[in-house]
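Notes to self after the call with IL:
- keep both proteins in one doc
- input above output, always
- annotate only the second one for now

Protein 1:
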Amino acid sequence: METLAPASIQHARIRLRTARTTEFIDVTDRLEQFVAGAGIRSGILAVLTLHTTTAIVVNEHEPQLLADFEALLEGLAPAHGAYRHDDPDVRTVNVTPGERPNGHAHCRALLLPSSTALTVADGRLLLGRWQRVFLVELDGPRERDITVLALGEAAA
């Protein structure tokens, strides 16, 4: 009978402060620190944003490319477009006092993932040469939270 290596599960919540309305925040180093402290030799790291106007994406950290992404989102769901979500005469649910118009941010978030699953190998995130993990702010600036869960074979 084969003996299975002990499993480990570690969870954390990471709080971030965003600075701009639309922003790509590289969280890769924070995720790598979490994995290093989690004691996982091999497994999966799940990353989830806890907000409906943010996203989690994996892509390249190149300034011109990030500017292109922002322009693409603006073209698909313009900040100054007409959104029923922003019309107080139409919208009747989930309304909070003093809420800012953010229909564009919700529409943009619909186009992007709210989570990702990453491979952990040899105690580290396994990413491609140019891959980085971003929290995408779509309605900032605000305080934001992501939750991370590492699950896998415990390090010896």
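Protein 2 (the one to annotate):
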Amino acid sequence: MTDHPDDLVISRLLAVPRAKVWRAWAEPERLAQWWAPSPWKTDVKAFEFRAGGAFHTYMTGPDGGESDNPGCFLEVTPMERIVTTSTLTGGWRPATPWLAITAVITLADEAGGTRYVARVMHKDDADRRQHEEMGFFDGWGTCITQLEDYAKGL
């Protein structure tokens, strides 16, 4: 994928084999263990891991904060790529999200570990800036670290 000014991108080399990273992503009970920045908790309400399948997470914080995130898997290429969006729900049903995004997660073998790239696309500069100001790099970065730590134990 080429760079686009409305994208936010994190690329990290994880010290975990790709099969373990994939397993942590591909099983909802495992995803719930690392998906939200600690001490937040994740309830996976829907997880149909296929193109067109529902993907719905609900996060709660220790201070009573909530984040309800229904969406849809657009693409699932085993061991390589996961694409989700908040603009559709399961079965390709249109949605009106609080923040319209499409996230592309790619995995590749590198240096005995996994190159993990999260590219989050926004409809415009204003949404990208809003997401960045909300703490995108800290939040998503924390979750990627949690993913790596969790996957090491698999």
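Annotation: The longest strand covers residues 66-77. The beta strands are 7-14, 41-47, 54-60, 66-77, 81-85, 88-89, 93-94, 101-110, 113-122.
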